[in-house]
């Protein structure tokens, strides 16, 4: 058994592989890492907007029937996997043209397995033998992200943004380190594409990062952040196009001063919908059944509220990803068939969150959040508060205004907010 602690996984997102020059730049970076004497694995996403384009092509071919079943989703996964596989082969060709020994592998060829449904697989296990063998022979192993094999040997994708999770899972399997290369200099106090004075965070606590990712900061897939936190993985977020040192995700064990700034970032998620279900209280298993069905479909809910209401009804409310509405609707339709229930969906909403530490001990943060929004005529609802996140729903068309206002109200536009943890 080799000691793989020196192993480094480089993950290149779609934005870092857009053009031929981008692919060659990634190959040069991998070449340098390999020459440094470390075993190197590259994990790649589909180039540029390829995944969106493939989905658009599928939509142009035909509409998913409401009773489509897994057969439809299987074909979508077959299609989407081509995006990552093409990146992997091109990167391997770029490496070979530099004289770097390399082999590209699809997720199934790399020994990555799942039991999840098509479109939402979660990694069960990684058989390290194929990747390990290639590394021992001096190759850079280039692995298609975002995909795994199910029991039947079919490819299953891991949910949008899932290549980060592939990269983190491989690094965790080998006990190595993971660098996520993207198109920004690291994790910022808000999305730097929309908030120009967002500051870069030199280091972020792993639990705070997991919360930011779940709240919608696309820079890291939420399951990747959670896995990295659980495995205490050495993880950095870096820019593939600059020499910026990026953001290090750290395990926080040090003392946190009471007066430290408590909000790290403002995060928004446009992929949000709000669902309200009203059902007669006599259907007493319905509330628990709803969450069981959503869990079976691997659909995460947030901002959950269940309450009795007049006349003898139970009202359930929760937010979920807008992109998962079709699956949620189909699954719930089955459950509600013949029962006297009303489902109401609002899909023009966005979730805006403060992410930080000790937020429950700072009730002034929720107060400042809500007053800032209302003073600017932004209607907020469905408030959730927790120790590391406070979230509200706002109208979708005011989401970016809300982020800018909160970013300024919480004075996050400084170069280095105080919550940054020393490394
Ligand atoms: N707090 C944040 N810090 C950094 N980037 C963020 C943040 N919130 C959202 N983002 C967005 O995440 C994007 C990177 O994710 P993504 O577009 O999925 O890249 P990739 O193709 O590399 O996976 C950035 O371009 C940025 O707009
Ligand atoms: N290509 C997939 C998977 C992925 O992780 O992409 P990216 O790393 O570019 O966010 C997607 O677009 O969702």
UniProtKB/TrEMBL annotation:
Domain Aspartokinase ACT: 352-410
Aspartate/glutamate/uridylate kinase domain span: 7-239
EC number, as in UniProt: 2.7.2.4
SUPFAM superfamilies documented for this protein: ACT-like, Carbamate kinase-like
Highest taxon listed in the record's lineage: Bacteria
Keywords: Amino-acid biosynthesis, ATP-binding, Diaminopimelate biosynthesis, Kinase, Lysine biosynthesis, Nucleotide-binding, Transferase
Catalysed reaction, written as an equation: L-aspartate + ATP = 4-phospho-L-aspartate + ADP
Pfam families per record: AA_kinase (PF00696), ACT_9 (PF22468)
Keyword ATP-binding in record: yes
Pathways per UniProt: Amino-acid biosynthesis; L-threonine biosynthesis; L-threonine from L-aspartate: step 1/5; Amino-acid biosynthesis; L-lysine biosynthesis via DAP pathway; (S)-tetrahydrodipicolinate from L-aspartate: step 1/4; Amino-acid biosynthesis; L-methionine biosynthesis via de novo pathway; L-homoserine from L-aspartate: step 1/3
Top-level enzyme category: transferase
Entries under InterPro entries matching the protein: AceGlu_kinase-like_sf (IPR036393), ACT-like_dom_sf (IPR045865), ACT_Aspartokinase (IPR054352), Asp/Glu/Uridylate_kinase (IPR001048), Asp_kin_monofn (IPR005260), Asp_kinase (IPR001341), Aspartate_kinase_CS (IPR018042)
GO molecular function terms listed in the Swiss-Prot or TrEMBL record: kinase activity
Record family assignment: Belongs to the aspartokinase family.
Function: Catalyzes the phosphorylation of the beta-carboxyl group of aspartic acid with ATP to yield 4-phospho-L-aspartate, which is involved in the branched biosynthetic pathway leading to the biosynthesis of amino acids lysine, threonine, isoleucine and methionine.
Protein name per UniProt: Aspartokinase
Organism expressing this protein natively: Saccharopolyspora taberi
């Amino acid at each position: 058994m080799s000691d793989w602690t020196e192993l480094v996984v480089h993950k290149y997102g779609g934005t870092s592989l857009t053009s031929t020059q981008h692919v060659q730049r990634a190959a040069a970076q991998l070449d340098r890492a390999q020459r440094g004497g470390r075993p190197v694995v590259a994990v790649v996403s589909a180039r540029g907007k390829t995944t969106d384009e493939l989905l658009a092509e599928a939509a142009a071919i035909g509409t998913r029937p409401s009773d489509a079943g897994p057969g439809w989703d299987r074909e979508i996964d077959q299609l989407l996997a081509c995006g990552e596989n093409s990146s992997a082969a091109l990167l391997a060709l770029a490496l070979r043209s530099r004289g770097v020994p390399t082999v590209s592998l699809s997720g199934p060829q790399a020994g990555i397995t799942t039991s999840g449904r098509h479109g939402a697989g979660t990694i069960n296990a990684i058989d390290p033998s194929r990747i390990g063998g290639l590394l021992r022979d001096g190759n850079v192993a280039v692995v298609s992200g975002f995909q795994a094999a199910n029991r039947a040997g079919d490819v299953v994708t891991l949910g949008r943004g899932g290549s980060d999770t592939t990269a983190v899972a491989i690094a965790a399997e080998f006990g190595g380190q993971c660098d996520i290369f993207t198109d920004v200099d690291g994790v910022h106090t808000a999305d730097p594409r929309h908030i120009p004075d967002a500051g870069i965070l030199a280091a972020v606590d792993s639990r705070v990062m997991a919360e930011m990712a779940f709240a919608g900061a696309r820079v890291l897939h939420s399951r990747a952040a959670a896995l990295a936190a659980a495995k205490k993985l050495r993880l950095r977020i870096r820019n593939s196009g600059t020499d910026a040192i990026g953001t290090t995700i750290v395990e926080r064990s040090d003392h946190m001063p009471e007066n430290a700034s408590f909000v790290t970032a403002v995060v928004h998620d446009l992929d949000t919908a709000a669902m309200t279900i009203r059902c007669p209280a006599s259907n007493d298993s319905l509330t628990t059944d709803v969450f069981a069905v959503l869990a079976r479909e691997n659909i995460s809910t947030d901002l959950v509220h269940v309450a009795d209401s007049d006349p003898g009804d139970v009202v359930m409310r929760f937010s979920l990803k807008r992109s998962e509405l079709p699956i949620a609707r189909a699954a719930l339709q089955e459950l509600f068939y013949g029962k006297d229930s009303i489902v109401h969906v609002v899909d023009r909403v966005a979730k805006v969150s403060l992410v930080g530490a000790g937020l429950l001990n700072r009730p002034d943060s929720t107060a400042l959040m809500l007053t800032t929004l209302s003073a600017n005529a932004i209607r907020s609802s469905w408030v959730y508060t927790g120790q590391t996140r406070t979230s509200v729903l706002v109208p979708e068309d005011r989401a970016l205004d809300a982020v800018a206002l909160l970013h300024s109200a919480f004075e996050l536009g400084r170069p280095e907010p105080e919550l940054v943890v020393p490394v």
